Every structure is written in C-alpha cells, then in structure tokens.
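User: My instructor asked us to take a sequence, write out its structure as tokens, and then describe one feature of it. I'm not sure where to start. Here is the sequence I was given:
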Amino acid sequence: MFRFFTESIHGRFALLLIASLLFCNLAAAFLLAREGTAFDAAIRMQRDMGRLVALVESIEESDRETGAAILSRSTTGYTRFSIDAGPVGSDGAPQINEVAHEIMQALPGHDIRVIPGNPLAAVHERGPTLMIISVRIGEGVRKGEWLNSLVYPLAPSTVWGQKWAFFVPLFASLATALLVGLRILQQMTKPLKRLAIASLAAGRGDHSVRLIETGPQEIREAAVAFNTMQRQISEFESDRRRLLASIGHDLRTPITCLRIRAEVMEDETQREPMIETLEEMSVMVEDILNFSRDTANAEARRVTDLMQMAGQICAERALDFAAGAPILLEVQPVSLRRAFSNLVDNALRYAGNAEVSLTRQGDCVTFTVRDAGPGIAEDRLDTVMEAFVRGEESRCRETGGLGLGLTIARDIVVNHGGRLSLRNRPEGGLSAEVSLPGTVLPAAGAAMSG
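Assistant: Let's start with the prediction itself. The structure tokens for your sequence are:
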C-alpha cells in the first residue's frame, strides 16, 4: 500500500488530493464549529434569559405551591432553576455585564448577579456551569429570596452528535472528490499506459504500433513525437532491408558468371581456389538475404513445445539433450528455431562442442548453450552480437563466418520480448542464454508445433 502512494501517479495524486481536501475541510470545520458554538451559546443564552424573566414574573404573582410547580416545569437538563436565600456562587459583589444589562432592562428595579462559570470547575453542589444568573425576587410571597439559574454545558454525547452531524457531509464530500479526481486521473494517464505498451513493442522490433493523437496538448505532442519516431525507424529498417536484398540479388548474377568462367578454366591450380572463393561468396550472399528476410519476418505465432524443438535441434547435430516435460509457449516457431540453431551452430563452429539445456522458472523459459571453447574477450561481449561483427577475426568461412548468426538470433529473441546474453564461463568456454517471458501454457489439450 505504501508503494502505491509513493511510486504510482495515481497514488501520489490520491495522497495529494486527500491531504489538500482534508486540510481545507478540517480548517473550514474548525472555523465553522467555533463560530457555530458561539452562535449556539448565544441562542441558548437568549432563550434562557427570556425564560428567566418570565419565571421571575410568574413567581412574583403566584403562591408558594404554584411557584414551586412552575419552577419544576421550567428546569431542564441544561438549565436548572432554584429559589435560595441568596445568590449562588456570589461573594455579594454584583457583576455587571451584557447579560446583566439585558435582564435589567426586562426586570427594572431587581437586584441581578451574573457570574460566568467554569465548565471544568465545580460550583455549588450541582457541578460545572457555563453561567450563573441570580435575580432577587421583589414581590409576592417569596420577596427577598433569590431565583438562581444555572446554565450547564451540553453533554459530551450531544456535543459529539452535533460534530458528527457536521463532519459527515464534509467526509462525504472528501470521498466524492477523491473518487471523481481518481477517475479523471485514470482517464488522463491511459495514454501513458498505451505509450508504455507501444514502447515495449518497439523495443521488440515492432514499429507498426501507432498512438492515438488525442487528449491534452502535452499528450498529443508526445503521441505525435512517438508516431514520428516509429515511422522514421520503420522507413530506416525498410530501406536497410531493401538495400541488403538489392546487394544480395545484384551479386548473385556476377558470382554465377564468374563461377561458369572458373569451371571452364584449364589451369586446375587456379580453377579450384577460385571456385572455392566463389562458393564462399555465394554463401555470404545467402546470409545477407536471409538476414534481410529475418528482420522483416511477419511469421504468425503458434503454441509450440520448446522442449521438443530443442530436442530436435540437438538430435540433428548428434548432441545429448536431457528432455523434460513439455514447455508450451506462443512463439514464431520457424524464427525461434533458427535463433536456437544459430546459437548451437556457433558453439559447434568455434568450440567443436555444445551442451544444451532448457529450463522453466515460473513464466520465464531459459534456453542455454554452453561450450568449452576459447570464449570471447570481455570487452567484445557487448559488440559481438552486432551485424557483421565476428566472434573470430578470421575471414575464413569455416571459422569466422560473416558475423550475422548472433545478430539474427538476438533480433528474433528480442522480437519475442526476450533477451540474449553472452558470458564467459569461469571454467572456460562461452555460455549463451536466451530468456523468454510469457505465460507458459498447460500441456494437456494444447496444440503443439515442433
């Protein structure tokens, strides 16, 4: 969960949105709650003062029993009235404030005491109060006694009930804004996902993928730039293939003519070396043509048993191979067989031996060819797979080759989304390892192509 909020755009946006909205809502809630509390207190005070004034007038006009009944009915859970011999919580010194002024205006000629209470301190035996208002009764049977009004704070459950009633809409708006924001962000980041998928396809050699050039300006510009790059690479690859194919085809005719002339030469000491050289040139031309065809390969993918394919390659070359359970993968079987064969043939050509293995770890299949030959210099391991770069510097066809075998194998593997890596073995020799990702299919009931 933590990685979601730190590594993905959605997570970072959600975190930023939550923090921003939460801060704004809490700030607004604090301000509104403070103002609301003061407003509620003022409303309560106005109501209680009105009840106090009416109660004083009723007691002055009633007998003791009627006054006691009125007093009992007027007492609530948050405002308690009582008649005492003196004012509650007063040292006898009157305190004049705004509340006292308002009561004096309603009850002229009455002695009034107002004491702001402390909700955290115990006053009298009735507990903490917000305010104590005492009015001396001036008429009637209770003349000279004091009517004390004790205003208590709201109960915690009531306070929290009011707060939750206020916070629920705020949190609902937070959740709504978060859902809407994430939905909008999801729509905005879809082009980035398409760009990532198209880039992976381009890395495998598929330059036919194009992005939709719609959306915000920045997304459109990125899509246009990517499509332009794909088009230019496709044109470059097409030109390269045409050039190689043209060179190969154009060389065939003069090589054939030279071979015919060489075969009719009377000097056998010159004829045989010339024919051998022309044969080598013919093979090189075929390699060039094969390379141009392989780079333009559009073979359909089929579910193929790679274990069977590796076994057939080894059997054709009289190599030992420890076959295991079928490994089914959707591949281009002809191309992949060519890549595997090139690696095995390279090992046989340079080292005279090859050890082939095929393993599976999860959804990754690894094809490995090991030999006991001289290996390759460490500084050339990264460049030896480039076109026309030979692992052995000789120009001899039997050992040096034209330098296209590894290039073709690498391109085919990359086109399958895999990786071809070369490394020198500590005990001597070279190891060529092909890693192919993909969902390995169950063997039962699957169509197979060897």
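For the description part of your assignment, you could build on this observation: The CA atoms of residues 241 and 296 lie 7 Å apart. Try explaining in your own words what that tells you about the chain.
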